[in-house]
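Hey everyone, long-time lurker, first post.

I ran two proteins through the pipeline my lab uses and got sequence/structure pairs for each. Pasting them in order. The first:
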Amino acid sequence: MNLLRPDYNVVELAGNTLGYKHNEESLEKMRNFVISDDLRAKKAINVVKYATAANMVPVVVEDICTKEKTEYKSVREAALALGIHNTTLSYALRNNSIFKKIYRIKRKE
């Protein structure tokens, strides 16, 4: 792209905006941009539906004393229910270890 040298390209290197300065009119528009409550709600729904769903790992938490198994949609949901941090639960999942001396976590099959 750099070899073509089009007249309309205002940046030095194609795909790189380093050093580009917005004009005052553009800066003012960006400062005054307000997202409506409707749009904010739609964005939040999409994040919950799509962005997080792709990263969810369904898990089963087993109480090794009672042999009771509980299924959760994600590691984060299980951690919240057990009152621990999700990284602690992720570590236990990766290392197949027992946490809080009574729980074992496994991926849902």
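...and the second, right after it:
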Amino acid sequence: MYPIIKHIHLLTISISLAGFILRMIWIFMASPLARHRLTRILPHINDTLLLVSGIGLAWVTHQYPWEHGWLAAKVIALLVYIYLGARAIKSSGGLRGLIFTVAALLTFGYMVMVALSKSPWPFS
């Protein structure tokens, strides 16, 4: 069961990142695709699968945020990423949108590094 859940988790992570980048490109290009109905709905479906698979991984491996500092760091970083990503999308481009986009992508990178290193301080 673990390999299936892990592959779903990794796939939805990739889709989430690609979708965010594509949406931000569309926003900066002032493309109507940025506001298309599917552009607003599909990320919620994917991110729900991402969250469910993450919870499933925690359940199967018996690793919970209150017991493992690296997992707690990932959950906190996820909340920061969601906030920054939402601000980037609502900014409709411009310098402010660029700043929020870069900050969201850096936070995403931090989450990946924490997941790979299993440490809340992956750069030390």
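Reply from user beta_strand_b:
Welcome! Quick read of the second one: The chain has one domain: 2-117. Residues 26 and 77 are 25 Å apart (CA to CA).
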